[in-house]
Amino acid sequence: MSYPFHVTSALRNVGPDAQVIVQSVSGGFFGGEVLGQRIAVGAGGQATVSFPSAAVVHAQGAKDAPRQSVLLHAEAGATLAYLPRPLILFPGGALIQAMDITVAEGSAVMMRDGVLMHDPHGMAAADRRLDSRITVRRASGHIIALDRMQVTDGLIAAATPGVTHGFRAFGSVWLIRQMDVPALKAAVAEAFAHEDACYVSTTALRDDGGALIRVAARDGGDLEVAMDAIHRIVVDPSTGETPQGARYRDQP
Q: Which of 10, 112, 159, 186 has its CB surrounded by the most CB atoms within 10 Å?
C-alpha cells in the first residue's frame, strides 16, 4: 500500500498467523480521491488486518465524491480477519465504496463494516451520502452474497420504521465460512434481548456460505459497544482466534 495508507510491520504470534495494523496518514477521505486496497492470504495462511481509528469522510466540496475499492482474497484453508473501524460521515461528505471478497475451499473470512453520521460543533449542515456495495463470491465466481447500501441525510431524517427508525449508526459483521448459523442466531438474540440502544439481527448467507450480523444503533458510541459485544460472541475467548477458531463452526 502507498499514501494515504501506512502499513506497520507484521506482529507475529506462535504459528503462521500475522497481525497487521493499517493507518491513514491523511485523516480520511477527501473529494476527488481514488483509493484501493488489495489483501490476499495464501493457502493455509492466517492474517488479521486492523485499523486503530475510524476514517472520516470529509466534505467533498466542488470535487467528485471519493472512491474506494477493497479486494479481499483467501486461498484454500486460509483465514483472514479484516477489521476496519466505522466510517464517519461529516456534513457534505460523500463516498462510493466497493468491496469484493473471494473465498476458496475451506477458507474463512471475517469482515467488519460500519458507518455513522457526525455533526461537529459549528460545522455548517450539508447533505452527505454513502453508496456501498459488498460482493462475496467463491473462487469459482459463484456469488454467495451481494449487498448494497445507501445512506443519505434524507433517509436518516425520515426515521422510517423498518428502515432507519431513528438510528444514525449502522454496522455489519460478515462471517464467511461453514458454520452452525442457528446456534449463532440464538447467541446473538440472547445477548441483545434487552437492549434498546440498538437493533441487532443475524441472517444466513446462501449456499452454506456463513452468516451476516447487522447492527442499527442510536449513535457511534452505541454502535461501538454493540460491535464489541458481537466480537466477543464470535471469537473464542480462550484463544482469541479469529475467525477460524471461533465458536459456532460446524463440527466434523
A: 112
